[in-house]
């Protein structure tokens, strides 16, 4: 069975619904009047607000940014200023980006799991 984080359900889907109902890591409390920005996160259509970083957008949706490629443990960013490598994610075309210092853009297609993990999760039958 593939490792799954608390915000990944048995079908490999991410989002606050998969975290036991206790909601996302971040909750927006201010600046809610900015324009919405639609993007794709792990194959799902989601939205953020103009000016949000990719990290903010991901953590407003779920509990983690990615899983560690070494231990499989969930990661949510560390320094939040681009100095470490804890928040690296990829675009669907394979380009690595720092989620903490990259602004989310309309139409962006982000994947939070390594391609081999995605292939394994898709090949594994749902339980």
From TrEMBL:
Residues 1-25 are annotated as: Disordered. This is (2Fe-2S)-binding protein. Signal peptide: none annotated. One of its GO terms (molecular function) is iron-sulfur cluster binding. SUPFAM superfamilies: 2Fe-2S ferredoxin-like. Gene3D superfamilies: 2Fe-2S iron-sulphur cluster binding domain, sarcosine oxidase, alpha subunit, N-terminal domain. Keywords: Oxidoreductase. InterPro entries: 2Fe-2S-bd_N, 2Fe-2S_ferredoxin-like_sf. Pfam families: Fer2_4.
